[in-house]
Design goal:
transmembrane; 158 residues; transmembrane helix; 4% strand; membrane; mainly alpha; 5 helices
Amino acid sequence: MSHKKNKIYIFILMLVSWLFLFFAGKESLKKYLPASMFMSLLVYSENIFAERVKWWTITSRLFPKVNGIMPFVIGVFLSGSVWILKFTYKNIYLYLFVNILVDTFFSYPFYSLFKKLGVWKLIRLKQYQLSLLFFIKSLLMYAFQKYIGDRLYSRFFI
């Protein structure tokens, strides 16, 4: 598949993610956006490290001089984090279950599709390791929300 088509798909994926954020509701955004932004920053930082040590490479970039992970960070990861927290935050077992499902989906079918399209590919990391990495980050996001996000929300919005 051409890089031009990949850019279009990535751009559409980013826009759709932003549109879904509007449906999350103002209160949910206030409450869960700090943890979601933390997660996005973590994913961005992880990508810089991962590309240096050749865990993976992103071959299709939306903008030539912008890190290839950026559309995913400010799109799918940010929006997905808000939605997962919105529906599962108060129930740790549901949160863990949903994250295992989402991480597995991202690490297997979603990865396979994007690899086939030539968007990105794993180099020194296996798919199960990628899934585990995502799961660990989900635990960090939950901890951030519990110990920092809730305090920010109650201090500034309640």
